[in-house]
Amino acid sequence: MTGIKCIGRDGQEREFNCSEPDIDGYGVKRYTYRIRPIASEPIESFEFTVEEVGEDTVKVVVMDRHHEPAYSAMGIPERMIQECATTLGKKVISSNNGANIPGEFRTPRATKVWERLVAQERATFDEQQDRYTFTG
Predict the structure, then answer these.
(1) φ and ψ at 119, to 5 degrees?
(2) What pTM, to 2 d.p., does this model score?
(3) How many CA atoms lie within 13 A of 17 on its CB side?
(4) CA 32 to CA 47: how far, in whole Å?
């Protein structure tokens, strides 16, 4: 477990525990992180998963707070996108909305995360591919 610091919508910095990634390789290498509050009753973890899509790129495929209010508006997805880019040393992209690739989708909540990163000039959007790319 390592600590990650996230800045929530309220501007407050909070620290969370982040597991080392579970790595599975059922055809595609996937890294799944589980994030939990440091000092709290045990609750369902925030799940964040990326999968490799080439040698130098990972795609975000899961951002799920499992309906836990403790994770709402805490900045965890943005921080985990940054964390994956840094620790994996790879480009991080979004899923698209499914129009271009059957079986792939990006939820409206995930789109909001990426749009916040674009507004902060930390991501770009490729309209043709309907895909965001984290730029730091």
Answers:
(1) -60, -30
(2) 0.83
(3) 11
(4) 7
